[in-house]
Design brief:
Shape: globular
CATH superfamily of the domain at 22-140: 7,8-Dihydro-6-hydroxymethylpterin-pyrophosphokinase HPPK
Structural class: alpha+beta
CATH topology of the domain at 22-140: Alpha-Beta Plaits
Distance between the termini: 28 Å
Radius of gyration: 15 Å
Oligomer: single chain
Number of helices: 4
């Protein structure tokens, strides 16, 4: 993807109120801790969101950006994360492929697990679909433990329920990974 012109300002959270039923919500988490050609991670994440439409993905709700220390190595650059609720005609596998193409366009390399990255897109949930295949596990197997995912999700859909029965708000409060995650002002 081409680098955008002037830096984009982050939009405030958009609350679910667009007719999306939480049981049908398709949730994608975004993260960045190496901006690549963009001036900073916020600009990179905004550019990634701008590219969703070209892949047939419509953002219907989005959180603010949240900063947290890198995990598992806090010596890596800090992360900027957010969550969006999307609508798409893609099935889960096709959506994962589309997200992978966006990551690739942003220079994402998978040299080592948890290494710094220009863009990380994770499919957190696809409605109430539950699947456990080698290439796709839904809901995302570690999202419920990560405040940098559940915090942003609780911001836009606090009553979304994980299959474990807990709400996004409760999971954000109990998350053990990324406890330092906080929304940017």
């Amino acid at each position: 993807m081409a680098k955008p012109g002037p830096q984009h300002k982050a939009s405030p959270p958009v609350l679910v109120g667009t007719g999306v039923e939480l049981d049908d919500a398709i949730i994608v988490a975004l993260g960045c801790n190496e901006p690549g050609p963009w001036s900073d991670c916020r600009e990179a994440l905004e550019a990634a969101l701008a590219g969703f439409r070209a892949e047939g993905i419509d953002v219907v709700a989005r959180s603010s950006w949240w900063r947290s220390a890198a995990w598992p190595d806090p010596n890596d650059p800090p992360f900027l994360n957010g969550v969006v609720i999307v609508q798409t005609a893609h099935d889960p596998h096709a959506l994962m492929a589309a997200l992978g193409r966006i990551e690739e366009a942003f220079g994402r390399r998978r040299d080592a697990p948890n290494a710094p990255r220009t863009l990380d897109l994770d499919l957190i949930a696809y409605g109430r679909t539950t699947v456990d295949l080698s290439e796709l596990i839904l809901p995302h197997p570690r999202a419920a433990d990560r405040k940098f995912v559940m915090g942003p999700l609780a911001e836009i859909a606090p009553n979304w329920r994980h299959p474990c029965g807990e709400t996004a708000r409760t999971l954000a409060d109990r998350a053990l990974i990324g406890k330092d995650a906080t929304p940017l002002a």
